[in-house]
Amino acid sequence: MNYIQNIFSPRQNKNNPLFSALEPILGFRPKTVEFYERAFTHRSTKLKDPQGNAFNYERLEYVGDAILGAVIADYLYKSVPSANEGYLTKMRSKIVSRGYLNKIGKEMGLMPLMRSNLALSKFGQNTHGNLLEALVGAVFLDKGFAPCKQFIYNSIIDPYVDISLLEGKITSYKSLLVEWCQKEKNNLRFNCEKDDGVEIIKHFSVTLLINDKVIAKARGTSRKKAEEKACHRAYFALQDKIEL
Fold first, then answer.
1. Which tops the pLDDT comparison, 86 or 161?
2. Rounded mean pLDDT of 13-21?
3. DSSP one-letter string for 87-119
4. CATH superfamily placement of domain 2-166
5. What is the mean pLDDT of residues 2-21?
6. What pLDDT digit, counting tens, does each position of 205-215 carry?
């Protein structure tokens, strides 16, 4: 088993070295180490808890996603009192977007704390954001809502969230194009084909059409990535018509 750092211990007490590694990140001393050990355990370890359930961060990621979304919604509601529902929804989506959470998780240095059977080089960028959400879930279960909210403000909102900068930031070109096409009553569709060939990594070729007119083409290692890349290209081809 490849432990990125030898910080884990089966002891469920405050002598566990994971506490020392997390204190600078959290700003407080955790109470229950089990939540944080789970938050930094990847499914590749195939570990089980005493009840025989999978012991990894995925369930905590689900909890953290919900708590983070609620706190960000509350923050935006109070910070921008003149904003309408559409603005608040769009800004929340930008803050909790996978790309933005990946950036924050990476800057917080969370991945080196993860234990896994795989080398770090095997993980994609989404792991940074997954661990951040799992950590939020762990704080919530360990400390409760109020301390978790304070942690989100201290460690995520205050150092990383700038509303003025985010207002002009596009986090999903596909979402932007879909919204614009719906507003303008345009028909947006994708034609997707999986490339046949000798490449080890398979690619998908996507053609983006609006009202049956080809606007952009792109390739990617997944259909989702290819569609987003095609939308990126389509946005620049149509940006004189699209209002942010």
1. 161
2. 67
3. HHHHHHHHHTSHHHHHHHHHHHT-GGG-EESS-
4. Ribonuclease III domain (1.10.1520.10)
5. 52
6. 999 999 999 99
The CATH architecture that domain 173-238 belongs to is: 2-Layer Sandwich (3.30)
109: Cβ contacts below 8 Å, ≥ 6 apart:
25
Tokens 């789970």, residue located: 38
Q: Which two tokens stand for residue 30?
A: 């955790």
Average pLDDT over residues 82-109: 90
Domain boundaries, given as residue ranges, for the chain: 2-166, 173-238
Report CA-CA distances (Å) from 138 to 70, 141, 147, 168, 219: 16, 5, 11, 32, 38
Asked whether 114 and 42 are in contact (CB, 8 A), the reply is yes
- Residues 85-97 have pLDDT tens digits of 988 988 998 899 8
133 catalytic residue (yes or no): yes
Active site residue 107: no
| pTM higher than 0.85 | no
State the catalytic residue, choosing from 37, 61, 107, 133: 133
Q: Which of 37, 61, 65, 142 is catalytic?
A: 65
Least confident of 13-27, 117-131, 133-147: 13-27
Separation of alpha carbons 12 and 90, rounded Å: 41
**Separation between Cα atoms, residue 70 and residue 217, nearest integer Å:** 37
Return the ∠ at Cα 215 (arms to 126 and 205), rounded to 5°.
50
Same fold, 2-166 and 173-238: no
Locate 174 and state its tokens: 């596909």
Cα(25)–Cα(151) distance, integer angstroms: 9
